[in-house]
Amino acid sequence: MQKTFVIIKPDAIQRGLIGKIISRFENIEFSIVKIEMKQMDEIWYNRMYCHLSRIPYEQNEKFMLSAPIIGIVIKGVRAIDRTRRMIGNTVSALANPGTIRGDYGMCPTRFNCIHASDSEVAVNKEIALFFGENY
After folding, report:
1. Which residues form the domain of 19?
2. Cα(34)–Cα(45) distance, rounded to whole angstroms?
């Protein structure tokens, strides 16, 4: 069993997609290990998204801090890879139908409903950033 980290972004929450998104994970027998809604701040954002270039960084920061987000720790077989495939391409317009972003994402690109960690290193870092170092 492997764990991964997912964020349901402000656009998905505001559009009432929380249950639809979570049910996709539960339907493929993933377990929700921890879930919490939080309003994040600039310190969290800077640590989470320091890899973005300046323009996407500023646009994404305004979006991600505009409303609460939901952090979820998911556990299951090959959770990282399977979750990344389930959510689809970062650019919603390029995401395949049947993926979360393909079905629910909106343009521009940052309004893509969901984030998922892309590696075990990222999972551990992002869980600690969201839930605290002691999680």
Report:
1. 2-76+115-131
2. 20
The H helix count followed by the E strand count for the chain is 7, 4
Residues with a catalytic annotation lie at 115
26: in domain: yes
The tokens for 34 are 């921890």
Mean predicted lDDT score pLDDT of the chain: 90
71 within a domain of the structure (yes/no): yes
Q: Is the peptide bond before 108 cis (omega within 30 degrees of 0)?
A: yes
Number of domains into which the chain is organized: 1
Side by side, the strands of the sheet bearing 2-8 are 31-38, 69-76, 2-8, 114-116
Helix then strand then coil, % of the chain, to nearest 5: 45, 20, 35
pLDDT in tens, 79-123: 999 999 999 988 777 888 999 999 998 865 567 899 999 999 999
Give me 92's structure tokens.
């919603």
